[in-house]
Amino acid sequence: MTDFTELKKKQRATWALGEYDRIADGLTISTDQTLRVAKIRSGERVLDLATGTGITAIAARERGAQVTGVDLTPELLAVARSKAGDAGFSDINFQEGDAEALPFADATFDVVVSTCGHMFAPDQPKVAAELARVTRPGGRVVFLAWTPEGGLGSWFRITNKHFPPPPGVASPFNWGDAEKVRSLLGSAFRDPAFTRGDCPQFGTSPEDIWELFSTRYGPTVRAVASLQGDALQAFRKDLLSFLEGYRAVDGKVRWGREYLITRAVRV
């Protein structure tokens, strides 16, 4: 069995880089659709898995749920607590935790949601097993993941060409492939249903989006910090060329970031 301990330490450090809250601000469309698919009711016990800076947890609390947010990265949780307090929801329970070994009893939650954070945990079968363990029978899981063929999947393929990921780690974009999701969830869940959408990132130019992601988005910040000279310029050139393909007639960029939302019921 592969030990991902060191990798998760690096991931934790990666997501603490930059300023993820600036990226999360552009995810409102996808968060809203995820919660509409979840149909959260007032009083339900909701877990926001890999909550990041808490935008999904706060939105679930606005719908009257009892919300817990868990994440591997304490720096992101500090931002989440601050945002929740500013929104008047200091009762959201934010705590540090691993998606592969959640610090909760069996069948604790009515609903488990995640807006793309869970997909970066390296041991996908363990994540699926934890989803099943902490969701009550008849409860539901609803999670969003970027599709492998979509805009963010392409961004990561370019990044991986210049800054290869660790060997032996499954693609996080498996969670954005309906058939692979069915296989991961297995017999613990029934009635899987899938909803597709797009959460575009807008910019005045390819350089505008490069500047945002290369200084604020942890995985890209880490890649930039690891490259120098010609290697860094080649990485930048490839991503700018990719983004150029999303330039609209008015000269601005509308970078499509397609996603898949999965909804399934715990057996």
> What about the largest sheet?
7 strands, mixed
The total strand number stands at 9
Shape: globular
Uncertain runs with pLDDT below 50, 5 residues or more? Answer: none
Number of helices: 11
Q: What is the H-and-E element order?
A: HHHEHEHEEHEHHEEHHHEE
Return the average pLDDT rounded to an integer: 97
Sheet-strand content, in percent, reads 15-25%
The secondary-structure class comes to alpha/beta
Strand order of the largest sheet: 3-2-1-4-5-9-6
Distance between the termini: 28 Å
**How many whole angstroms does the radius of gyration measure?**
18 Å
Residues in helix, %: 40-55%
Can you walk me through this structure?
- This protein is an alpha/beta fold.
- It contains 11 helices and 9 strands.
- It has helices at residues 5-15, 20-24, 28-38, 55-62, 74-86, 124-134, 151-162, 178-185, 206-216, 218-226, 229-244, and strands at 45-49, 66-71, 93-96, 109-115, 135-146, 189-198, 201-203, 253-255, 258-266.
- The model has no long low-confidence stretch (mean pLDDT 97).
Keywords:
seven-stranded mixed sheet; 43% helix; 11 helices; alpha/beta
Short description:
This protein has 267 residues and is α/β, with parallel strands linked by helices. Helix content is 43%, strand content 22%.
Layout of secondary structure:
Layout: H1 5-15, H2 20-24, H3 28-38, E1 45-49, H4 55-62, E2 66-71, H5 74-86, E3 93-96, E4 109-115, H6 124-134, E5 135-146, H7 151-162, H8 178-185, E6 189-198, E7 201-203, H9 206-216, H10 218-226, H11 229-244, E8 253-255, E9 258-266
